[in-house]
């Protein structure tokens, strides 16, 4: 008889949009994905790291 293992993984996506205030045109979009913990303090640290990494790509180079 086979054994079945079940795992629950929470995955989160964070999206940051920067729009032109006058034209409402999207100027830049950053996104990060990752697994979430059931411990809020760990999630806070993960989010901080993701935002820091995301904004290393801002401002966008050449267009």
From TrEMBL:
DUF4136 domain ranges (all copies): 3-60
Gene3D superfamilies: 3.30.160.670
Xref: InterPro entries: DUF4136
Lineage top rank: taxon: Bacteria
Protein name: DUF4136 domain-containing protein
Organism from which the protein derives: Tunturiibacter gelidiferens
């Amino acid at each position: 008889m086979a054994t079945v293992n079940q795992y629950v993984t929470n995955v989160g996506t964070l999206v940051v949009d920067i729009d032109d205030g006058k034209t409402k045109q999207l100027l830049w979009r950053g996104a990060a994905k990752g697994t979430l913990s059931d411990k809020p303090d760990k999630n806070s640290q993960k989010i901080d790291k993701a935002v820091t990494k995301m904004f290393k790509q801002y401002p966008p180079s050449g267009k």
